[in-house]
Design goal:
Layout (H helix, E strand, L loop, with lengths): L15 H4 L3 H10 L1 H5 L21 E5 H7 L4 H5 L39 E5 L2 E2 L20 E8 L3 H4 L6 E7 L5 E11 L6 E12 L4 E12 L2 E2 L12 E5 L19 E5 L1 E3 L7 E3 L8 E2 L4 E2 L4 E3 L3 E3 L12 E3 L1 E16 L2 E17 L4 E8 L19 E7 L7 E20 L2 E22 L1 H8 L1 E3 L5 E3 H4 L40 H7 E22 L5 E2 L2 E2 L1 E16 L2 H4 L11 E22 L2 E15 L3 E15 L2 E12 L3 H5 L3 E5 L17 H11 L16 E5 L8 E12 L7 E17 L3 H10 L6 H4 L1 E3 L12 E6 L2 E21 L3 E18 L7 E2 L11 E11 L2 E10 L2 E2 L3 H6 L10 E2 L2 E11 L4 E8 L21 E10 L8
Parallel strand pairs: 2-5, 36-40
Antiparallel strand pairs: 1-4, 2-3, 4-5, 6-7, 6-50, 7-8, 8-19, 9-18, 10-11, 12-17, 13-14, 13-22, 14-15, 16-17, 19-20, 20-23, 21-22, 23-24, 24-27, 25-26, 27-30, 28-29, 30-31, 31-32, 32-33, 33-34, 34-37, 35-36, 37-38, 38-41, 39-40, 41-42, 42-43, 42-44, 44-45, 45-48, 46-47, 48-49, 49-50
Length: 994
């Protein structure tokens, strides 16, 4: 029969040895002797010393391959996010459309405890893998073959002493299958109820034991596909139907006077919302008040609809906000070929090797290009005839605001290739001493292809159209070799003199009306795809000796176990920007080339001391510790350590705990990134309606700041611009390591009077000091005015318009500079709990239940030394609910097994905690929180015979949708989802044992 690994037998309190058995087999072994099974020593994540899993002081959550299969998704991150500790991970949704950072489309990155992907260490069989993001150690989970996974172990805190830097929040360790024999093939397909969001998987694995079982080799191929999903495929997110929360024009509060609660909600849900200063067809401004007067190719009057502060309108001619909605999921294709080998020459020399090639290709589209306040001279023949009588001769033309959807949305087509190789040897030096020596090589090559980019100098030339004198239209630049662009009002692009073309090359472009077909020749000339390339390499040489003092020195609890070793690691990253983009010649960000590397020499030690065993009030009592010294070429020396212990006064109860210091060295990007251009929309905290949303210092600071910049009445200041602002971002070679102190304390209950029941509860507390933080421009702007004084480093990073002599109004933010700094303190604390229970019956099969949950007690940060603490807990934007619980109820009898999974996530605040505290009526009470998640997933597995198995299920059975105003919280917009799969298992094709 197929080995259906019962998911109920796992978790921090489960036995991996049992996990490899079918429910009935596992139950039989458990009935024969739970104690005997639990004494089997294994290597558990968080230690190099083999011991029974429940004897480990480290709280480890475990899931199996069958858990992943039953989930119905072929995307590993989607399933792992059901583990509360990984809920904040960066999934395909986060890295699609305009939510994806440049070059990040399709990435799936794990994030433990909402402390950042850069603080989560991902391992494969306890070893590192090369990163997938330039300048970081972040691993794309798409490169890990699903069908080779035996189990996944998730450890909180205390990892740096064992594995080195980056494991500040913990470790996620993917354990792969060993000694695979025979051939398996699996196919799976899934679709939403709408017939989209499809996922497909084909996986084939073949292995063979030889030399009487002393050797084994296995090869595997896996192909997966995930379909692109647009927000426009969901009617509640499309067109006039999309609902968002916008300023309530009926609100009477005057925040500058300290008013913050008039009982009228500041924000209300509205639909059919549009930008009031722009149009897909071109908003035309003839009186230069920066608001459109006419629109489109026919020059009809611009309908202003109903004004919605600060720059929206309900109804009318403006561009729908929903039009800017883009992909909810990217298109992903991945192929992974893996091979593993080992041969035991003797007990003293066992050779092993691994190899992997992974290729993923991800595609997603985001926003189009756009422009504000383009100056179009009055002799431009494309200006609508209906508009011409209204042109002021003193202005000499019109201003155009336009959303260029007809030019095509910008997109990313990213190809990532990862190669990883491992070779090593292990063996026994004596009955109590063994060694393990290995070398890991990794390389990632990334080609980032950006579609529908625009060449700025050509665009400016193309829109400056004039008559050619023969009844046709040409570009002014074709007639005047000395032509240069004149755009004194536009701030979305730089004025660039002709660089990529010569007079006579230009093709005129008509901006008035949506006219892609008529503009095709011009679009072919001004649009261009650009390509960035990244290469990352990794070398890791490590060796360890493990042993125990058995026969030499033993305590009442047994022999002392230890591990000693060293490691050398070198990381290198190279990013080469597209030549056009690097020169700032395109609409997209101007990126600088970045090249950097570091290496580190490390020595480590670990010890496990079993003090007492099988004594009154000491069924087991032990302590353990680990220490690691590191010498980095980038920052010098660091050290990390961990101490822990466990005490079982009786068989039924075990108390456990750890206290550790972890470190994270700055990565290559944080240290060496060249200054590059970036864009960000900033909702100015000094806008009069935002004054009440900050600290007690905001009103006075904004008053002083704006007054110094020439704003006549700071209490009524409004920045009504609706577009992104340009700024710069770069690295900081002066960074130091960040450090974390983590403690955990827990209990394991295995009551002898209730067989097959295990309960665990572990409290964790993680405090990070000198955290490296690159604060986003919006937050920098807020932090500037929310401190006790304006003399702070955040204000130094923001440039505002001084006076009216410029392209912006007095006080407006015009630019910013952001980069990483060792300034933040971060803290999180909470309780992880698990319950595993199996009820066998002779007649009705085996029933089981597993509950995995988390209570979040604290998630907070101090952005700079001396600043007020920011409470980030229970906020939807951080995906940090107070409670998360995943419950599985299972039943298995004969060839059939069923799983009913219920996922619960408590409601979260729609706005940050500071805004809510300072502004009690920010929204009506019923909208203050996004609704809770309560989803039901059903799956079934049926073994037709010993070789063939089918399975399937329905996820989100009752079709829960995202909360009002949200696209992905508390659940995605995919909707009810159906999946079906089959697995074939054959005996060893090479004649080995079955």
């Amino acid at each position: 029969m197929f080995t259906r690994k019962d998911r109920l037998l796992l978790g921090a309190a489960a036995l991996p040895a049992l996990a490899l058995l079918s429910p009935m087999q596992a139950l039989a072994q458990a009935v024969q002797g739970d104690d005997e099974a639990s004494e089997q020593p294994i290597i558990v994540t968080g230690s190099r010393i083999a011991r029974p899993e429940l004897d480990s002081p480290n709280p480890v959550t475990v899931v199996t391959a069958q858990d992943i299969t039953n989930s119905g998704t072929t995307n590993l991150t989607d399933y792992l996010k059901t583990i509360p500790a990984l809920q904040g991970s960066s999934s395909s949704y986060n890295n699609s459309g305009d939510r994806a950072g440049i070059g990040a489309t399709g990435l799936n990155l794990l994030d433990l405890r909402n402390l950042g992907t850069q603080r989560t260490l991902v391992l494969i069989d306890g070893r590192r893998q090369v990163a997938s993001v330039d300048g970081t150690q972040s691993v794309d989970i798409n490169t890990i073959p699903t069908d080779l996974i035996e189990r996944v172990e998730v450890l909180t805190g205390g990892a740096s002493a064992v594995y080195g830097a980056d494991g500040v929040s913990g470790v996620v360790n993917f354990i792969q299958k060993k000694d695979f024999e025979g051939l398996t093939a699996r196919v799976q397909n899934g679709l939403s109820k709408y017939g989209d969001a499809g996922q497909r998987l084909i996986a084939i694995t073949a292995g063979h034991n030889f030399a009487d079982g002393r050797g084994n080799f296995a090869v595997a191929w896996e192909h997966g596909e995930e379909d692109r999903l647009s927000s426009h495929s969901r009617k509640w997110l499309d067109g006039e139907n999309k609902v968002g929360f916008y300023r309530n024009s009926a609100d009477t509060e005057d925040a500058s006077q300290g008013e913050n609660n008039d009982g009228i909600p500041d924000y209300i849900p509205l639909k059919n919302i549009r930008y009031n200063d722009t149009s897909r067809e071109a908003g035309i401004d003839v009186d230069f008040d920066y608001m459109p007067d006419f629109v489109g190719a026919d020059g009809r009057p611009f309908d202003n609809g109903t004004f919605v502060p600060n720059f929206y309108q309900q109804g009318g001619s403006g561009t729908l906000v929903s039009d800017y909605g883009n992909d909810l999921l990217p298109k992903i294709k991945r192929d992974i070929v893996s091979a593993v080998f080992h041969f035991d020459f003797s007990d003293a020399f066992k050779l092993y090797a691994e190899g992997k090639y992974a290729r993923t290709r991800s595609y997603s589209v985001g926003q189009p290009t756009y422009d504000y306040y383009l100056f179009i001279p009055e002799d431009n023949p494309y200006i609508p005839a209906a508009v011409r009588p209204y042109i002021d001769p003193d202005n000499g033309g019109v201003l155009v605001n336009r959303d260029n959807f007809d030019f095509g949305r910008r997109g990313e087509d990213i190809t990532r290739e990862t190669v990883r190789g491992v070779i090593g040897a292990r063996g026994d030096l004596s009955p109590n001493l063994s060694y393990d020596l290995s070398y890991v090589y990794g390389r990632s090559k990334i080609k980032s292809h950006y579609t529908n980019n625009m060449i700025t100098d050509r665009y400016y030339a193309a829109i400056d159209a004039v008559s050619d004198g023969n009844g046709g239209v040409t570009c002014r630049a074709n007639l005047d070799p000395s032509w240069t662009p004149y755009q004194p009002y536009n701030y979305t692009r730089s004025e660039i003199a002709p660089t990529t073309f010569s007079p006579g090359d230009c093709m005129p472009l008509n901006l008035f009306g949506e006219n892609a077909s008529g503009n095709q020749a011009a679009l072919d000339w001004i649009m261009a795809d650009t390509v960035d390339r990244t290469t990352l390499t990794q070398h890791v040489l490590s060796g360890a000796i493990t042993g125990n003092s058995k026969g030499i020195f033993e305590l009442p609890g047994g022999a002392i176990s230890f591990a000693l070793g060293g490691e050398y690691r070198k990381e290198k990253s190279s990013f080469v920007a597209d030549e056009l983009a690097a020169q700032g010649l395109t609409f997209t960000n101007s990126l600088g080339n970045t090249k950097g590397s570091f290496d580190v020499w490390e020595a480590f030690a670990e010890v496990d001391v079993p003090i007492l065993a099988d004594m009154p009030f000491a069924k087991r009592l032990g302590v353990n510790g680990a220490f690691r010294y590191s010498d980095y070429s980038s920052i010098g020396s660091t050290n990390a350590w961990k101490v822990g212990g466990e005490w079982a006064p009786v068989r039924d109860i075990t108390l456990r705990g750890t206290y550790s210091k972890a470190v994270r060295a700055p990565n290559i990007s944080e240290l060496f990134s060249q200054v590059s251009q970036t864009f960000e929309f900033i909702n100015d905290p000094c806008n009069h309606e935002n004054l009440q949303n900050g600290t007690q210092y905001r009103v006075a600071n904004c008053q002083a700041l704006l007054s110094s910049l020439g704003v006549a009445d700071p209490s009524q200041y409004v920045d009504a611009r609706s577009s992104n602002l340009p700024g710069f971002q770069g690295g900081n070679p002066g960074l130091r390591e960040e450090t974390a102190k983590t403690w955990t304390a827990g209990i394991v209950l295995q009551p002898s009077f209730i067989r097959h029941l295990t309960i665990t509860a572990d409290w964790y507390d993680i405090r990070i000091q000198n955290a490296i933080r690159t604060v986003d421009p919006q937050t920098v702007t807020e932090l500037c005015v929310d401190q006790s004084t304006l003399q702070n480093q955040y204000c130094d990073a923001i440039t505002r318009q001084n006076g009216t002599n410029g392209i912006a109004s007095a006080g407006n933010v015009t630019s910013f500079v952001v980069g990483p700094l060792n300034v933040a303190n971060i803290r999180t604390a909470g309780l992880d709990f698990q319950v595993n229970y199996i009820v066998p019956t002779d007649k009705y099969g085996t029933f089981g239940a597993r509950v995995v949950g988390n209570y979040l007690h604290r998630l907070s940060s101090v952005p700079i030394p001396g600043a007020d603490t920011v409470n980030d807990a229970y906020v939807a934007g951080n995906v940090s609910p107070k409670f998360q619980v995943t419950t599985d109820l299972t039943w298995a009898k004969g060839p059939v097994s069923l799983d009913w999974q219920v996922n619960y996530m408590s409601a979260m605040y729609r706005y940050d905690r500071q805004t809510i505290a300072n502004n009690p009526d920010v929204v009506a009470p019923k909208y203050l929180k996004l609704k809770e998640r309560f989803t039901h997933d059903l799956s079934m597995t049926y073994d037709i015979d010993d070789q063939f198995q089918v399975y399937g299920g329905i996820n989100n059975l009752f079709d829960q949708k995202p909360a009002l105003g949200s696209m992905n919280t508390p659940i995605s917009a995919v909707g009810r989802y159906f999946f079906l799969g089959a697995r074939l298992k054959l005996a060893d094709l090479f004649g080995g044992a079955k």
